[in-house]
Amino acid sequence: MKSIFALPLMLLASSSFAACNLEVEANDAMRFNLPEMAVDASCKEVTVKLKHVGKLPAASMGHNWVLAKTADVAPLATAGMSAGAANSYLPAGDARVLAATKVIGGGEETEVKFDLSKLEKGGDYSFFCSFPGHWAIMKGKFVIK
User: What is the per-residue pLDDT for 18?
Assistant: First the structure.
């Protein structure tokens, strides 16, 4: 005899629940709370919310969330240092920046929406913070499943 819950559970298991809205936290210890973020390839648009859970202001411990091909992370971070705070430490109009939030300070939130169809499933992508000196440890993998 089948349970009355069997059909809804089978439907739930077979449904494709796309994780198109992601959230990541950054703190005053220069860390993201996630080493990897994954999004379903069926998403047309992705929203990433960044929460700065620390207390320090953006001028001294600002964080942003930047998406780029992994090979572009170091060159972008290096170029971003001279771009300055007004540009969230990213070169203006640089096509290597696939998505990015503004730099925020402790207690603040921001988000970015981007078109996932411009990225390749299985591509080598990373997210990082472009605030000077942060990218070396504040980074993670971005996976399209």
Answer: 55
DSSP string, 79-117: HHHHH-GGGTTS-TT-TT--EEPPPB-TT-EEEEEEEGG
Please tell me the distance from the alpha carbon of residue 18 to that of residue 54, in angstroms, as a whole number: 30
Q: What's the CA gap between 65 and 110, in Å, rounded?
A: 9
Distance of CA 75 to the CA centre of its chain: 18
Structural contact between residues 47 and 113, judged by C-beta atoms closer than 8 angstroms? yes
**CB-CB contact of 46 with 143 (8 Å):** no
Mean pLDDT along residues 4-24? 56
119 and 144 Cβ atoms separated by less than 8 Å: yes
